Recover the amino acids of this structure.
């Protein structure tokens, strides 16, 4: 029974951490660029890897470095999300009547994907430290966090595709605003707590 309770706690933690991945994936999926197997794999793999990896890293680093980063991690997340979100808004309000897919930045690769992966997984660093205090099996916990993030990222990408098809260019503006709001929520949550 104790193992089942621990698993349920870890599952809830994993889902809580993966919500940002889901939301950011919705924004990426709403882009006019087509979703291919490769792009879905890249986004979901990176988000899952970074979430699970950051939890493991937080567990490894211990209290000193995590406490040092805790003073600025929320600002880093805000800057990264605001940068990508601002670019999405600019694309969405561009003067072009039609937004061809070639003119949109591919957020499923390169620096945009890495920045989004880091921004969505910074909270996992602190969770990793908490897992050390819970005496949790960090290997199982990191894998569970990574897998849940991967699954919710895939769901977000396909959900975002439907949103993009329905709202067109406005979806990019809305997606950019959502990324900035996520960044602000992270800052508010860290400064109020």
């Amino acid at each position: 029974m104790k193992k089942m309770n621990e698993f349920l706690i870890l599952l809830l933690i994993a889902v809580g951490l993966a919500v940002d991945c889901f939301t950011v994936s919705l924004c990426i999926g709403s882009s006019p660029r087509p979703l291919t197997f490769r792009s879905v794999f890249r986004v979901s793999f990176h988000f899952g890897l970074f979430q699970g990896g950051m939890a493991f890293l937080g567990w490894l680093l211990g209290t000193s470095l995590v406490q040092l980063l805790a003073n600025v991690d929320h600002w880093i997340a805000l800057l990264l999300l605001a940068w990508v979100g601002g670019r999405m808004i600019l694309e969405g309000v561009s003067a072009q009547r039609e937004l061809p897919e070639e003119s949109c930045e591919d957020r499923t690769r390169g620096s945009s994907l890495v920045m989004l992966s880091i921004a969505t997984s910074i909270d996992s660093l602190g969770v990793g430290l908490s897992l050390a205090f819970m005496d949790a099996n960090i290997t199982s916990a990191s894998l569970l966090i990574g897998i849940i993030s991967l699954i919710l990222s895939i769901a977000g990408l396909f959900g975002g595709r439907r949103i993009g098809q329905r709202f067109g260019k406005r979806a990019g503006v809305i997606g950019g605003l959502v990324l900035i709001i996520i960044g602000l929520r992270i800052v508010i949550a860290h400064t109020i707590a």
Summary: The first helix runs from residue 2 to 29. Residues 95-103 have pLDDT under 50 and may be disordered. The CA atoms of residues 22 and 153 lie 5 Å apart. The helical segments are 2-29, 37-70, 73-92, 110-133, 138-167, 169-192.
